[in-house]
User: What shape does this take?
Amino acid sequence: MPWLTQSRFPFLWNCFQWAIGGSVDKRRLCLRHYSGQKRVLEVGCSVGNIAVAFQRTPGLRYVGIDIDPAAIALAKKRFARCDNFSFRCQDLAETAELGERFDYVLLAGVLHHLPDQESLSLVRAARRLLDERGLLVVVEPVTPAAGDSNFLRFYLRTLEQGQYVRDPATLGRLLGSVRGLLPCGEETCLVGATPLGVPRCARFGVWQFRGD
Assistant: This one.
């Protein structure tokens, strides 16, 4: 197990993510197709490093879920003064059983930690939580493109903890195989390691789906 993980040292892990883990650019990607939806669910919210991106949205109700109790505990402390933000230590199946619906469901940096069948199960459960006009957004690290720098490959080999980083075409096919989802856009973008956006450290894919 890597030494620095969100489970063992959630505060230090969050600092690392902000300083050289690309959090600032990842937040921008997660907002790239956000258009003011008021009921937001983030699956695998960790310590709330992406949730920060939604703090300035008026009238929003944000729910973050994660199966890591240490990460959720820190997220609750960080957002203790935000009455419209809630964090739960539960899996997606438990959330779906509550009968809630959301118009913006975000899976950011989750699927590259899961094999194909578990990834499919997670996306199917997320589909059940989409409102009739809801948008599902998947943001994931992908393998470098042919023209990407050697630094991206080095970063992937040495610092990426996910064991299932896929190429964009493979992940796109996997997501597209889920029934009840209508694809409405995909792209890949480079992410910078630091808050300044440099150096470029990873390539991320962004997929959008509507309920079909």
User: Anything to note?
Assistant: The longest helix spans residues 116-128. The longest strand covers residues 130-142. Strands lie at 39-43, 61-66, 85-89, 102-108, 130-142, 181-192, 200-211. The chain has a mean pLDDT of 93.
